[in-house]
Amino acid sequence: MAIELRYRDGTIHLADGEDDRSSDLESLPGVEPDPRSGGYRAPAYRYADLRDAIEKGGLPYEERVFDARGGDSLDLATDYRLREYQTDALDAWEDAGRRGVIELPTGSGKTVIAIAAIAAVGRPTLVVVPTIDLLNQWERELEREFSVPIGRFGGGEQRREPITVSTYDSAYLRADDVGDAFEFVVFDEVHHLGGEGYRDIARLLPAPYRLGLTATFERPDGAHEVIADLVGDRVYRLDIDDLAGDHLAAYDIKRIEVELTPEERQEYETAQETFVDYLKSTNLQLRSGSDYQKLVLRSGNDPRAREALLAKQRARNVMMNADAKVDALERVLDRHRGDRIIVFTAHTELVYRLSRRFLLPAITSETGATERRQILERFRDGDYSRVVTANVLDEGVDVPDANVAVVLSGSGSEREFTQRLGRILRPKDDGGRALLYEVVSDETAEERVASRRR
DNA sequence: TTGACTCAACATCCTTTGCTACAA
DNA sequence: TTGTAGGTTTCCATGTTGAGTCA
């Protein structure tokens, strides 16, 4: 009798009938005995390895993992003509056994590659995206390209079709009960999959074909290694500089250094000293994010640690929201009267301050969906030529193109910086260059923060 | 259907140069 | 001699999102 493979609740179950093949089965990747059923089981994401090992070992097997409804091949056709690097990326993914991550900058056409991959695989596909905005964009794009109905998990709808788009949150909630429906899964902005909860999505799905898309694969916490295990290694990579001047606009980065006022300097030094003194007195070394995490943990029951962290927070506020930055922005706005400008900050309070002072439309997490849409539409139509925002427009939102970005403050995250830069790199009609201003408070920790993100 | 609300999850959060004990 | 980890176990604050609930 053949070994029967079935999917149930995020797990592959193996039954070998009356034959005793326990030693064969236990040597298969990820397989262990299942006391409850008396058979064997393996985590769903190991399905591809499992099937390969069974075939290699010449064991007879019967595949009942996927829902019969997805039995027929999808007849998918798309008119897209890929650019050379897009074809190379797709080939690299095919060569890796239709698994792996493609890293390409924002605006280089990652969606196009995914659509070509969906057409090539021709099997039921789940596309997972981080935001409702992207959910809508993907749905529209897929409807335009394919003649099959497009399903949707998220934003209040739960409709399953051979090609379905889902948010990460909905995919997390539904993975174990729809796992048998999809043989191909595409993770857009795949770096999100490194989150503690989200990685379960990939674990619970048996889909043998997997594609991850991102502009910034590596994560500071090292979780990209988990992603590589679940989706496949990075198989292709180009960064902004590989495409700038060709498929993306050429760009310049200008750094503006500003001085703190005497009062700000006094406040900054006092707070910074409190923080550093605590580190010295406790012999604590901060070399990485995890060291900082230790300090945060300690602050739970050590009042001095808590005080040190609050002081650090104060110092950060001073350097990131310095008065001179507002003046620097005024000069930039004067210099670029005819340009389209996006201003980025790290704090919402500064967004509203700038909005009042320069009469700029503002978008933060507090801005409702309707108002946000209106502002972006007016920016797209040219009614507005400037927008100020905190972190909302970093990722997952279709932002109209601009040619000047001003980063007044931000984190040390390379990802955040790359995403912000990406907002001005759509090729310009006149072939002009994009320009990013980075405003940094002189002689503060912000200089280090700024160098870390590049 | 919309809006206001709560909740949970995720991301970032990083000083200046060195102490001590222990393992390789 | 050289290299490396270091005690703990729900986590200071801010920003952002999606899901769910209720009116």
UniProtKB/TrEMBL annotation:
Domain Helicase C-terminal span(s) in chain numbering: 325-454
Residue ranges, annotated region (Disordered): 14-40
Pfam families noted in UniProt: ERCC3_RAD25_C, ResIII, XPB_DRD
Any coiled-coil regions, as ranges: 312-339
MF terms in GO: 3'-5' DNA helicase activity; ATP binding; DNA binding; hydrolase activity
Alphabetized UniProt keyword annotations: ATP-binding, Coiled coil, Helicase, Hydrolase, Isomerase, Nucleotide-binding
Gene3D superfamilies reported for this sequence: 3.40.1170.30, P-loop containing nucleotide triphosphate hydrolases
InterPro entries attached to this UniProt entry: ATP-dep_DNA_Helicase, ERCC3_RAD25_C, Helic_SF1/SF2_ATP-bd_DinG/Rad3, Helicase/UvrB_N, Helicase_ATP-bd, Helicase_C-like, P-loop_NTPase, XPB_DRD
SMART domains: DEXDc, HELICc
Enzyme Commission number(s) from the entry: 5.6.2.4
Domain Helicase ATP-binding residue range list: 58-403, 91-235
Reactions listed under catalytic activity: ATP + H2O = ADP + phosphate + H(+); Couples ATP hydrolysis with the unwinding of duplex DNA by translocating in the 3'-5' direction
Similarity section: Belongs to the helicase family. RAD25/XPB subfamily.
Protein name: DNA 3'-5' helicase
Lineage, broadest ranks: Archaea, Methanobacteriati, Methanobacteriota, Stenosarchaea group, Halobacteria
